[in-house]
Amino acid sequence: MAARLEHSELVMHLTPMPLTLAHIQAALAMPPLGERSDFDLNPDVKAALMPGLKQRPAAVLCGLVERAGGLHVVLTRRAAHLNQHAGQIAFPGGKVDELDPSPLATALREANEEIGLGEDRVEIIGTLDPYQTSTGFRVTPFVGVIDPHWRALPDPDEVEEVFETPLDFLMDPANRVRHHHDRQGTRRTYYAMPWGEYYIWGATAGMLKGLSDRLAVLAAEGAL
């Protein structure tokens, strides 16, 4: 299966568009494809950092909303005054606190705190493969369907903006690029999915690619 994933860009055109909830549920029902990470495109960095890197548990919510034009993904732009990842595009979520009974509870709590999404307004339909960040978090991405009548109430201490991006755009490899930055003499490459004024990159883009890869495998097998 890993070998087939290397050719996801070639088979993704077989995936029906627009994507439906049935397609997403089929993708989430697949066996795990393997943990993803910030190091997928940076094996040299992984070799240098991983031996001493902690893996603190975290969780995020990839929320889907059905609109007239198809499924959309709910994303946030982090507040500009934050000390870490200021202004970046992210899923609602965060680290697992000691009082959280589970990673799912973390994702739901953070979504409520960050964007005002109550548990009664979202139905969890599955998880994507865990994602390891270069900052030492092992993230569980939960996928949920959000009530289309819900309206975001962003917490200005954490979130500058809540917006929705078409899922079809994010799942199309033609809209996914590889960019890089140089830090302390080391080049780090990452996935990005620029959409209008929004630059979706890093771990968020990597987790979305994980869902795209699942859809690509199903398309290649004729299961969609």
Please describe what this structure looks like:
This protein has helices at 2-5, 8-11, 21-28, 43-49, 103-115, 167-171, 202-220; strands spanning 36-37, 56-67, 70-78, 89-90, 93-95, 122-127, 131-132, 137-146, 159-166, 177-183, 186-195, 198-201. The longest helix has 19 residues, at 202-220. Helices cover 27% and strands 33% of the residues. The chain is globular. A hairpin with a 2-residue loop joins strand 10 and strand 11. The model is unreliable at 1-12 (pLDDT under 50). The strands form two sheets. Strands 1, 2, 3, 4, 5, 6, 7, 8 and 9 form a nine-stranded mixed beta sheet that branches. Strands 10-11-12 form a three-stranded antiparallel beta sheet. The chain has seven helices and twelve strands. The protein has one domain: Nucleoside Triphosphate Pyrophosphohydrolase, CATH 3.90.79.10.
Please bin the fraction of helical residues: 25-40%
Measured on Cα atoms, how large is the radius of gyration?
Answer: 17 Å
Number of helices: 7
Assembly state of the chains shown: single chain
Largest sheet: 9 strands, mixed
What is the percentage of strand-forming residues? Answer: 25-35%
- Measure the end-to-end span: 17 Å
* CATH class placement: Alpha Beta
- What order do the SSEs take from the amino end to the carboxyl end, as H and E? HHHEHEEEEHEEEEHEEEH
CATH homology-level superfamily? Nucleoside Triphosphate Pyrophosphohydrolase
Total domain units: 1
Q: Low-confidence segments, ≥5 residues, pLDDT <50? A: 1-12
